[in-house]
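Training component of the fellowship. As part of building independent skills, the fellow (R.M.) carried out the full modelling exercise for a liganded target. The chosen ligand was adenosine-5'-diphosphate. The inputs are recorded below so that the supervisory panel can assess the work.
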Amino acid sequence: MYAPFATAGPGPTTSSQHEWGPKGPKWKREPIRGWHNGLVKVTAPFARATIRTRIIWTIFLVASVALVTSGAAVWMLDLRSIHDDIDNRLVLTRQELRRLAEEGIDPATKEPLTEPAQTLRVYMERSVLGSGEGQLGVVEGAVQWVSAEGIVLRPEDDPELVDRLLAEAEGDISTITTIDTARGHYRVLTVPVTDGNTTAALARVVDLNTAEAGLWRTMRIYASAAAVTMMLVAALAWLGIGRLLRPIWELRNATESIDERDLTTRVRVRGHDDLSALAAAVNHMLDRVQRAVEAQRELLDDVGHELRTPITVVRGHLELIDPDDPDDVKQTSELVLDELDRMVALIGDLLDLARSSQSDFVTPEPTDIEALTLQVFDKSCALGERDWQLGGCATGTTELDPARITQAWLQLAANAVKYSEEDSQVVIGSEISGSELFLWVEDEGIGIAQEDMERIRLRFARTAQATRYASGAGLGLSIVDSIVQAHGGRIAVSSEVGRGSVFTLRIPLTTADETRSVQLKESDKT
Ligand code: ADP
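Fellow's submitted model of the complex:
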């Protein structure tokens, strides 16, 4: 039964069947100004954290954003669906009340409904309200009827709501609106019913807090589940990333234990992934560093040893010099100057060898082979009285350092002169075969024994026969070898003791185009 509103006095009670319808480095930095400054300050501790912490924070952040975004999307869609549902049901209520007013017959008694207030009462009596719903009957600007007892939502208990409802009900158009009061948060429908003389209005109220309670409960469960998920993600990420980064820590420990005194330690290479490739690359780098450091040490030892001899010789002669004997002074000064010249030449050679490990040791440029051959031949002729012959002359252009190749080639020619008799034949020539350039010097000198062939390339290495024949430091071929290697080539030697030797510089032709140009010219020649 419908209870009359206390302030409005007793009145007719109506009810109707109602259907409800439907989210710092050491260097000085330039000061960073503006928002960048703030960003740097915020991210600075992150930048100092370990890689493991940074990755975990990143995963944590990404997972949080994903969970919050999906939660917010679900919340917004659900909230919208709840509100749409409420509005659809309010629209249905309006349609039912209007239909009743148009028909003008009480469905229960079949009596005609003569007044708007009567229509309103009949409708309210027949209404079945859901939980969180309430209603008021307003007649001539005052609350006439309230919901029956047992209905939980009582709009009449919220004076602020009643005032707003009366204001909404004053007009002659139906409205659906949201009203927030100190006590609650409501969705409200007002439907005026009028016969021209009197006006009644239904105010149907839906408590949005009750309607949304289920959604909020779900969201709280979602938030708890998300928090647990995040903790699980963080724990698994901590373990997984630790496992993944272990090779990097091993790499770091291994590289930290390596210094210039001990370059023999190597990193353990496990598996076939990127990190094992990195470990292998570090090992290769260490191999190269070790070779370079050992080469430098050997060079220093050799230099110390080789320079000590001329210095000892100079010192010995100067100690024994008789300053009152002009002949002795002259003789000693000639000898000392000779030794000093030898030292200067030696230092020059050693510098060349030291430079050979630097990247700018050779600077290749397109070079005309024919011109280079003729120049070297001309310069060689001045090296000594020999029967100089031009054995062959390749034509074309290739990439090489003409100055360094000339230096190497002339060194071979100088050796040919040094280790051969006067007027013997020395042949100089160049040739292209396949993808290689051959630059050679052939002599009729003392030759080299088979067992010395490999050794003579080494620094300060000399054959016993050569030591008896001529003086030298044993650095010439080492420099030639460095120059040829810097061009990606090698030295080939063929020799017979007592008959002579052929030293050939074999240099690969660099690019396909140049090779072709050289070969074309060769074929043009024939
Ligand atoms: P150096 O000539 O000062 O001894 P090199 O490095 O030029 O130093 O030569 C190394 C060694 O190779 C020589 O000592 C000699 O034994 C051998 N050698 C080089 N060129 C010839 C050559 N044309 N004929 C015979 N032996 C040679």
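The panel noted the following from the submitted structure. The two ends are 124 Å apart (CA to CA). The chain has a mean pLDDT of 85.
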